[in-house]
Specification:
The chain contains nine helices and no strands. It is mostly helical. 23% of the residues are buried.
Length: 200
C-alpha cells in the first residue's frame, strides 16, 4: 500500500525527499500532457518498471501497489470507451496507473516523516499570508493514507460483488463504495475533531 516505506540504499532511497517530490510532480504533469498514444503509455511504463528495479523493490510489492486500482481502472476504462475510444481509454488509464506507480515508488523509498517535514519546511514562508504548514502536512498525511484506503474499499466491494454473482452490476459496486467511503470520512473527521485538530 502507498506509504509503506521499505528501507534500502539505492540511488532513489538516497535522493532527498524534496527532490523526489519535485520529480514526482514534474513526471506526472509531463505524462499527463505528453503521453497521447498507447505506445507512449507502454514506453513510459517500461521506464517506471525500470525505476522500481533500480530501487530494488520486489516484483510482488510493486504489483501490490497497483492491484487495489483494478476495479477503479475498469470503471474509468468503460466510461472512456463509451464516450471516446478504446485507444483513449488505454491512455487515460495508463497515465493514471503510471502516476500512482510513481507516487508509490516515492513513498516506498522515502519515510513519510521526511515527506511531511519537507512540505512543512517548503511552506514555512507562507505563514505570513495565513497558511498553516502543519495543517497542510496533516492534509498530505491523510491523502497518503486515504488513497490506498479508498482503493482497498473498492477492491473489497468488488470481491463481495463477485461472490454474490453481480460482477457486471455497476450499482452493486458504486453504491457500497460511496457508502463506505462516506462512513470512513465521517469517522476520520470525528477522530480529528476529538483530537482538537479543528480548533483555532
Amino acid at each position: 500500500m502507498i506509504g509503506l516505506y521499505r528501507p534500502g540504499d539505492s540511488l532513489l532511497h538516497r535522493l532527498p525527499a524534496g527532490v523526489k517530490l519535485l520529480l514526482l510532480i514534474v513526471s506526472i504533469v509531463a505524462a499527463t500532457v505528453l503521453v497521447r498514444s498507447p505506445i507512449q503509455v507502454g514506453l513510459v511504463g517500461v521506464v517506471v518498471a525500470g525505476l522500481f528495479a533500480l530501487a530494488r523493490i520486489p516484483f510482488g510489492v510493486a504489483v501490490a501497489q497497483l492491484r487495489p486500482m483494478v476495479w477503479m481502472l475498469l470503471i474509468i476504462a468503460v466510461f472512456q470507451v463509451l464516450i471516446t475510444s478504446p485507444a483513449r481509454a488505454v491512455v487515460v488509464c495508463g497515465v493514471l496507473l503510471i502516476s500512482v506507480a510513481l507516487a508509490a515508488l516515492v513513498t516506498l523509498t522515502t519515510r513519510v516523516t521526511d515527506l511531511l517535514d519537507t512540505v512543512t519546511r517548503a511552506l514555512g514562508p507562507l505563514r505570513r499570508i495565513g497558511v498553516d504548514p502543519e495543517r497542510v502536512g496533516l492534509l498530505l498525511a491523510l491523502a497518503i493514507r486515504c488513497v490506498p484506503l479508498l482503493a482497498g474499499i473498492v477492491h473489497e466491494v468488488g470481491e463481495a460483488r463477485r461472490a454474490r454473482g453481480l460482477q457486471w452490476s455497476m450499482t452493486a459496486l458504486v453504491t457500497p463504495v460511496l457508502v463506505r467511503a462516506l462512513r470512513t470520512a465521517d469517522a476520520m473527521g470525528d477522530a480529528l475533531a476529538a483530537r482538537g485538530v479543528d480548533d483555532e
